[in-house]
Specification:
Helix content is 74%, strand content 0%. By secondary structure, the chain is an all-alpha fold. It has one domain: Up-down Bundle (Ferritin), CATH 1.20.1260. It has seven helices and no strands. The two termini are 29 Å apart.
Length: 194
Amino acid sequence: MKLNLDIGVASSQEWLDAVMADFDTFLQDHADCERKASSAALSLVAKYPDRTAIIPTLIDTALEELEHFQMVYNLMESRGVQLAPSMGEDPYIAALIKHCHSGREERFMDRLLIGSVFETRGAERFRMIEEALQDPDLKKFYKMLWTSEAKHGHIYIDMALKYFERDKVYDRLSYWIDKESKVIEGLEIRPALH
């Protein structure tokens, strides 16, 4: 059974060029994204405490994302880069959230599927970065990250399948593939994960 979400469009070379040209700014955004990913997993625990079949997985995911934040922060420290002065709204996530259903059950499934979307996109982009980097330690770090993000993409689909029928999950998944493609193509190119 397929558990991951395919991406509809590949990230552009222009995006990668922007990241590589201003890697320190990218690291600031990357750190923010890891914190937000941890918070997103914990917010699902807070909003859906009755979904006991997935709470341990959400906690594990939140802890792993927090560990990634710590690793990025340590990398930033070694390069003399501080955290961004404020953590703004991610235009990519905000655009995706606008397309969520409003009913409690439907929104629950959408939030899980969005989790898979952003983890899968993160895996694709971290892999592009890993392939472009020259420093062997940085390459190793970003390889570890993209493989972890790909795993998280699978995990969010698996969680949805615990509560919703397979056909319903995959029908809605095709909707998100289309929406995510439009969102990613409409974003301003900047040295940021999204």
